[in-house]
């Protein structure tokens, strides 16, 4: 196993390479305000972060990643365009796998540039591939933006589209909702009983909880409207299912997705961006003919990405987490920018895992 000094030396070397590509070195505090992280991730973040409390600063968390504080820093004081690199510890609670580290070093590279998003995507991916050259890794890519465009363009109510978007990162829940909205599954039994009541507010029972009668009535009315909404069409449902099943090399994936766009024309602009990204990757020497593309990739682990996503995996070591991950997070800059926004893409690498794989190969 690599020791700490070896990991730090490799991290420093990688950071120097990113500096050579034009990145400015930045650092962020180990303690991050919990409020910002909770706003973005919800209460789920508590299950994987170390939380502490300060009498003056309130709840804080040991840094779970670098991207959020780097985005916040850039949106407050950064110039355009900008490239940043960093290395340092991040902390993740491990309650189910004692063999996984709860503290490890990340090295990252982030690009904020509105002029050429496809070129920025290709820049980040190709630089990561260069850092990882020689290691027996499989690269996976995807594009969350294609799926979100498909959902947002469905011919159904805004309420249903919002529900699907909210559960985009939970494939099982997303599937259940999709089947119900398409009329393949009945509404939940408890909801059916409530709506089938002749006068759901007319029973003589105490009000329990914080919701007022008017709020409950509004919720029931919304559920009634949802019941009366026509199902998602068979063509749109078939298109979504075909989209989620696409797993091919990049050029063939684009070809299949163009066919899907016959039923889901709303994804065409996202496919045009994918086509531009393929050209930009080719221009940087990436062999796109052998680069895997999965339309559903990133749905379970890349919550703040909204476009291009990628990861590098050691197929000979399925016990290891990804060696590197990254992607595009334009929406995150809007959330943290107080009205401002800028296209952004970046990612992180694990030097400790790289060294471990190198030791295995000896």
3D structure, described in words:
The protein has 362 residues and is of the alpha+beta class. It folds into three domains: 152 residues, 2-Layer Sandwich (BirA Bifunctional Protein, domain 2), CATH 3.30.930.10; 93 residues, no CATH class; 75 residues, no CATH class. It has a nine-stranded mixed β-sheet, with helices on both faces.
Instruction: Count all strands and give the number.
Output: 12
What is the H/E string? HEEHEEHEEHEHHHHHHEHHEEEHEH
Which residues form runs of ≥5 with pLDDT under 50?
A: 200-205
CATH topology of the largest domain: BirA Bifunctional Protein, domain 2
Summing up helix and strand content along with how strands pair, one would put the structural category as: alpha+beta
State the major sheet. 9 strands, mixed
Can you tell me the overall shape? globular
State the end-to-end distance. Answer: 13 Å
Helix content: 40-55%
Numbering strands along the chain, what is their spatial order in the largest sheet?
A: 1-5-6-12-11-10-7-9-8
Strand content: 15-25%
* CATH superfamily (homologous) name of the largest domain: Bira Bifunctional Protein, Domain 2
So what's the oligomer here?
single chain
Kindly state the mean pLDDT as a whole number?
A: 87
So what's the CATH class of the largest domain?
Alpha Beta
